[in-house]
Structure formats: structure tokens, C-alpha cells
Amino acid sequence: MSSNESLANLLKEERRFAPPAELAAAANVTAAAYEQAKADRLGFWAEQARRLTWATEPTQTLDWSNPPFAKWFADGKLNVAYNCVDRHVEAGHGDRVAIHFEGEPGDTRAITYAELKDEVSRAANALTELGVRKGDRVAVYLPMIPEAVVAMLACARVGAAHSVVFGGFSADAVASRIDDADAKLVITADGGYRRGKPTALKPAIDEAVSRTPQVEHVLVIRRTGQDIGWTEGRDIWWHEITARQSAEHTPEAFEAEQPLFILYTSGTTGKPKGILHTSGGYLTQASYTHHAVFDLKAETDVYWCTADIGWVTGHSYIVYGPLSNGATQVIYEGTPDTPHQGRWWEIVEKYGVTILYTAPTAIRTFMKWGDDTPAKFDLTSLRVLGSVGEPINPEAWIWYREHIGGGHTPVVDTWWQTETGAMMISPLPGVTAAKPGSAQTPLPGISATVVDDEANEVPDGSGGYLVLTEPWPSMLRTIWGDDQRYIDTYWSRFEGRYFAGDGAKKDDDGDIWLLGRVDDVMLISGHNISTTEVESALVSHPKVAESAVVGATDPTTGQAIVAFVILRGTAEDSAELLVELRDHVGKTLGPIAKPKRILTVSELPKTRSGKIMRRLLRDVAENRVLGDVTTLTDSTVMDLIQQKLPAAP
Ligand code: 6R9
């Protein structure tokens, strides 16, 4: 935000949804957790660390003697892979399915914890044969197949840090990440299935590795069977090397602060940041939040997180959270509309999914496709619905609860970041009276608030910047190789507090609403207005499925609001509708928030993790040459939008 003006508090939401009585009565976590954590925050986390199995129990909780460089449970030792796999087998749950895999072409596999233990052990032995040692880095570039989980756990098992790169990223992006992390091994596949076709992965690795001489070997998983280039001596088939390994592997215990992974944030500007996470604190919070926020009952629940493994949500809520908790989960390889728009709901019905975790972008897409598709499937197994990745518009929240959750399933809107490692602000499904569109309350043991430009906490009913006021176990430890950038980016804007980069407001009850990245906030006639609120107002019109709003330079108002909207299934684009939409925003939020221009489009530019790239829309709205488009899912979207744009008035 560029002025001292706080974010205008425009949106009013009066709807409330109490937790279902049955869920509340049997909930894993009750309101007492907030009290306990408030009375003794570090004691609370020390207790949560005991969810894990330690080779050496920690006696220290937090070492904050050199802020902002934290150490959690520093004198404890554990093996993360042992915690995610072996201990469940030892506890007698070896026959429980860990992963129900659903390939896009319809191939399926059920992998039990006992089988997962064998696969991870073989892979760990293979990594050892290839010279991978504690402290090394391994790059992982894979589709959504079970071997992605196995590869990550095998790295953890031998103490090597993985750096997972989105399967959709270019050779350039992969090369720069391999280089930055100095990875000696790359794990990839010939290809994967997307939209009904095999897509290639290996050529990007061949190109990337030709520029990164530190890579000694490329381990290749055969998924599609397509022809690929092969470099003798360097390339090794995964199935060949793992087949000759023993299924026995003794996990070594590592220090709690042993690096577990590096994950590069999509980085809308500048060089990508390698976010470093370590072992004991990270796993404690991933495990606790998965248990608390989804109310996971490992014996009976079937959990499904639709994220890609290359995103932090895949790390914490496909791999480390659910597996440390012994969950049974679904992993789906492909896209939601292959071969038909009901594919996800077919999967929910088939496996009896009870907990679903997805992103607002997907929910808005389903709204656009129409209510009748999910209505054709039996979704009654669902009991908790989660959302992550962007602010969820109140109407999308209501749609999710109604059309997916049968009108009674709680929705938990979970705010967190790659940097925070695990969930930070979220309702608890058995405790919180939910408000559509709000992440509401910091989780037990987490301290967050909203401050103004001068770092003063804002009163209820006002907006500003979201900050985290105390260290937390799964916090990033640094930016890989760049401690100074870590300090500058997160800890310098407000003394002693972590600056998340998100705008937020506190409502009259003190609940937190996330309002998007501060770089996206608009300044209209001296008022800071959040893009999120204007988008939510547009989405609350029955004819709008999705929208993206930007502030474009304007000679009279400083910035003017330009809105891009996607209409719902049957709605027709017309001049009258655009007037109606402007008036609707005016009525919902007030005249100051009325968009100056509204354009209907068929797609919006998004990152692979589903976040709208407003920066590119701002370029379009201001008639500029487009900035970097390399992290877009589909770069043709911008051509379509530009064609649509009438000459500026
Ligand atoms: C987990 C993840 C982090 C940014 C974050 C914020 C946005 C994520 C949100 C949310 C509002 C939520 N974000 N969850 N905004 N409500 N429930 O998405 O990590 O890819 O690092 O993105 O995503 O802007 O700062 P990451």
C-alpha cells in the first residue's frame, strides 16, 4: 500500500454457520486448545511435537536467541520418513491404504503403508547407491504420481533436501532452480497425462541438465512409455535401479534442524526465492494442523487434497501432514474436466472421500460449469471442505458448502504461505461459527494481527497489513543461500514481526479477512481498496462466475478500477449487463468501488497453483507490453484477453 490510508472496510458479511453438532461433539480439537496455547505457547508446541516419534526427544522448544533465525526442538533427533511411514506399519496399520492413486487415463493403484515402506526403502537404497548423502540436494520434476511421494520421502529418509519443481515449468526455470540449490541428482519421468494426452517431461530436463554440470545422474520414472532421449551413464531408469535394491533400510535419525526441502516461490518479480524448511518443527506443525483443521480420523476418513505436489500445499497436505498422521488419501493425476466435467465428483463418490481440500480457482470453475454436474454424483460422504491459495469469495464459499457439501458440511478457509510451511489462520470445523469468505482466527499457538503503516495494531473494523508476531515451528528458516534477503523481505518492514505481504482487515468481531497481496491493492481517489472485495462483489452477482480486478492509472482518480469477468454458463454478454454489474458493485460496496470499465473474458491468467496474475491484467489495462509470462498455466490466455480489449476510452 502506497499511502497511509488504511484499507477501506467495504464488505459486510452477516451469514454465520455453526459447526455441525455431531462433528463438534467428537472433534479432535476443541476450544480448550486456544486457551492452553494462550497460557503457554511454547508448552503447547512442545506437546504437539510429541505427536511425532523422536529418536532423541527434544528438551528445548524454541531458540530465538538470534532472530529472525529460529531453531525449534534443536536438541531432538528424528527421521521424517520413518514418522510418515514405518511407525504406522510398526503400530499394526501396514494394511491400511496410504494412497489411492487415480491416473488420468483411468489406471488405478492402491498402496498400503506396508507397501509404501518397501518402496521408500528401495528408493532410499537407490539414492545411497547413487552417492546421495545427508545434506545433498535433489531436484524432483514429476507428474502427480505416487512415485513423487516416494521420491520425496526417500530424500527425507537419507537426509537429502528435495527441491520439487512444478512439472509445468520450462527448462529455464528448472535449470535456474537446479543451479541455485546446487542439486546433484534429478528425479523425473518420461512424461505424464494431462487433458487426455501424454505430455513430455524429460526433454526439459535434458535441456536444463545440459547447462547444469553439477548434476551427476538423472533418475527417470516410466509413466507414459513415450520415446525419450537418453544419455548413457547419466540417465538411469527408476524401475531398474529400485528393483535390485533391498526393501530393508534403517532410517538414520537427523537433527530437528536438518534441511528437509527447498521450495521456490513462484516469484511474481525478481529471482525466485528458495524457501528453506527443516525437519522437526515443520513436521510438528504440518501434522498438528492436518489433525486439527481437518479433524482427521485416520481409521475412517478418506482425505483428498487436489493440489499439485510441486506447490507447498502438496508438500504439507499431500505428503508430510497426512502421512505423518497415517491418513488414507486419494491422489489424482490429471485435470478436472478429463474426460468429463464431473471427474472430481466421480472420484469423491468412488472412494467415499470424506475430506476435500482445494482452491478457490477450482471452485469458481465448477460454478461456471454449472450446478447440475456435481448434482449427478453421491457426495454425501464429505464431512469437511477446505480452501487454500487465494481469498475465497463469500459466494464461492456458499456455493462450495451448498453444492459440494450438501448444505451442511463445514468449510475451512486456510490462510498460509510457502514461507509459513503450514496453516496459520483458519477456522476449526468443530469449534468455529464460520463466516463465508473469512479465514477468521489464528490457529492455537499462532500469533497474527493486522497493523497500519506505522506498525500500530489496527482497531476492529479496520484494514492494513497482516503480520505474524511470534515465531512458529514450521516457519521458513531462511532463503536458501541468501540470509540478507530473508531479513529484508520478511523482517524489515515491521520491527520484530514477520511481514506476510498480504493486505487484511479485522471485522467488528476481530476476525481476520485476507484481502490479497499488498502489491495488488488499488488507490482510488485517496482510498485503498482491495481487489478481493470488488471481485467478491462481482462474483456475488448471479451471472458472474469469476472476476479479476486491477487498478489502472487514471488522470482524475489516480487509479481507476478495471474488472475482467467470466460469466456463468448461460449468461449472455451485453451492454445492459455491464451496467447492471457496475450498479451491483456500487450497491454492495458503495459508489467508490464501482469499476470504471468491465470486460468479459473467457479465461483469466493464472499461475500453475491457480492464483490470478493481476500484474499481467494491469499491463493490459494500461496498454503496456506484457511482463514475464513464464509462470502462466496457459500463455495463450493473454492473447485472447488482449484481442478482447477495446481501445482505451
Ligand atoms: C498455501 C499457499 C501464499 C499466498 C498468500 C496469500 C494467498 C493463500 C489464502 C490466501 C487468502 C487464503 N493465500 N491462502 N489468501 N485466503 N486462505 O497458497 O502458498 O503459494 O506461497 O501463496 O497465497 O496471498 O500470501 P503460496
UniProtKB/TrEMBL annotation:
EC numbers on record: 6.2.1.1
InterPro entries linked: Ac_CoA_lig (IPR011904), ACAS_N (IPR032387), AMP-bd_C (IPR025110), AMP-bd_C_sf (IPR045851), AMP-binding_CS (IPR020845), AMP-dep_synth/lig_dom (IPR000873), ANL_N_sf (IPR042099)
Reaction catalyzed: acetate + ATP + CoA = acetyl-CoA + AMP + diphosphate
Binding site for CoA: R194, R195, G196, K197, T313, S525
Superkingdom of the organism of origin: Bacteria
GO MF: acetate-CoA ligase activity
Record's keyword terms, sorted: Acetylation, ATP-binding, Ligase, Magnesium, Metal-binding, Nucleotide-binding
PTM comment text: Acetylated. Deacetylation by the SIR2-homolog deacetylase activates the enzyme.
Acetyl-coenzyme A synthetase N-terminal domain mapped to chain residues: 32-84
Positions with a binding annotation for Mg(2+): V539, H541, V544
Entries under NCBIfam families matching the protein: Ac_CoA_lig_AcsA, PRK00174.1
HAMAP family for this protein: Ac_CoA_synth
Family: Belongs to the ATP-dependent AMP-binding enzyme family.
Protein name: Acetyl-coenzyme A synthetase
Organism: Streptomyces polygonati
Gene encoding the protein: acs
